[in-house]
Amino acid sequence: MKLFLGVDGGQSSTVAIVGDETGRIIGMGQDGPCNHVKSAVEGRETFIRVIGCCIAKALASRNSEGAVFNFEAACLGFSGGPADKKAILEEMLSVKKLTVTTDALIALTAAHAGGPGCITIAGTGNIAFARNTQGKVRRAGGWGYVFGDEGAGFDLTRQALRAALRQHEGWGPPTALHGALLAATGAPDANDLLHRFYTADYPRPRIASYSKLVDECANAGDIVAITILNNAAQELASLCAAARNKLFAHGEYCPVSAIGGVFRSNILRERFQMLVELSGATVTVPQHGPAIGALIEAYKSVDLLVTLTNLPEKEK
Hints:
Helix content is 41%, strand content 20%. The chain is of the alpha/beta class. It folds into two domains: 138 residues, ATPase, nucleotide binding domain (Nucleotidyltransferase, domain 5, 2-Layer Sandwich); 173 residues, 2-Layer Sandwich (Nucleotidyltransferase, domain 5), CATH 3.30.420.40. The strands form two sheets. Strands 3-2-1-4-5 form a five-stranded mixed sheet. Helix 4 packs across helix 5 and helix 4 packs antiparallel against helix 9. It is globular and about 70 Å long.
């Protein structure tokens, strides 16, 4: 039996899925994050352990204890990029065709089952990816929290804190965001919170997690919070259009999927959908999870067209 491997390696969890040459999924394994930013030695050890554990779990039904499995093709997508991971994987895996790429690309493949379309991702940061019928891929955004990431989680919290600081200093309108941020963090005032956010105690994901306060305040009717969400939706829709318009002609069908925690906000998501559909695209629900996207890319890398069957419930 020829085996194919797809892996989604993120900062919160890692998922591996193995399929055979017919497209039948034979197993899935999940473990913790594999993209650590600690010391090089510790990061490498964690990476190897987590990837190995996920693959072993995916192959558990094959009585894999002590066995070495040869993969016909494998695709692994990682947040933070693939540059420092391919050499390690070449040592770890016995695979004829290895593809190491970004988490955004496998998410694009998963959302549209390998077909043409566009995704806009807004989690801690942002990025938009598009692929047309000729297989050409373009991206927009993903510049990082200093120079970009408009509309994503970190930026929403940044806008909320800026609004709180303006109220604190008396040159901005009152907003429920001020009290919500102080209550959530325990800071005595907005100026103190600003300085806390500059320390190592508040890494970017932690700061981004407070973006949910913007949605809570907006749902309670706070005009400043509503404006922040509407502006974020506009930024993300513009990002989507920038990637899409490079590849799709005006009026050409292009499905768009919105991915990431920011889109849990009904206000933001509905505004985003309205703006995208006004531009002529169609917003659709992602067809699969990103690990399935990685597996599809593994099949594509050896020009094998299959219909996936026996999909795990979590990845459908």
